[in-house]
Specification:
alpha/beta, 37% helix, Spore Coat Polysaccharide Biosynthesis Protein SpsA, Chain A, globular, three-stranded mixed sheet, 304 residues
Amino acid sequence: MPSVAVVASTENTHYQMWQAMLFHFSCVKHLAQVPIIVVHHNGEPLLRGFELIADRGGCIQTAPNYRAHRGVSYPPRNMAGSLRHLQAQADFIFLCDPDMIFLRPLAWEKYALRGNRISFDEVSYLIPDKAKFGGRLETICQRAGISLQTLFDQPVSGGVPHMIPSRLRQAISQDWFEVMDFFPTFDRGQDSSPAKKLREAPRSYWTTSMWALVLTLHRLHLEPVKTRHCILNYDGESPRPPPGSNAARPSMIHYCYSTPGFDKRRYRDATGAEREVYNLPPDDGSISGAIRAQLREARDYYYR
């Protein structure tokens, strides 16, 4: 059976600290596997939560912070940075955002990829729409040396988690960085101040890193594999699928949206990250309820 390193790319902030703690707990509980938490920082001491992960037998690795680039603050650049600095002997890297939890075990043998394949988890919004992108995507494709028609002919509407063969991670990381520089997010231009770009970039181009990886896929002649690991918390108050090992059922929740039942963006400071996020209402059978339930369990796991 192939060996797989489960990896979460994080930053040394209170906001991502509690997410990393929850990710570690959830992975240990549901996969019976210790993930690697790659923490990007600027040389400052790691926050206490990362020490708690290590105290519970977790694996913490550190890397430089890549979010600041050409006057723009864009945290998703750290995903490519995690691939660059990761230390792992596994055959495959299962690369995740920290705002994910697991619902059931994963049969890694089903997801081992042959040849030059990497996986993308299905999303509905990564579509090469000329009207939506106002011609920008076509210009970016030209700079990247990829025809826009290629994106229509070979659509890859997917995001994290990615299964990546370890032997490809350095090449993917390097090209991923290069392609992100083709996007306006990192092009200050002649008439745009750095301050203006700092305000505009994160909201206007939040899919930059995702599109960049799609272009890297084509530039490196890799083959995409579509997976359906995740349900999103877009409708967080909806009942979640019943538990079980049925392959058709989701194995993860990606809580990337703010919903009434759970809003991750409320827990950015020390008080929110160390106290409030662990004292939420109990599980009510919803998607949001599953997140709250694991947070309550994680509280006992770390602070018992």
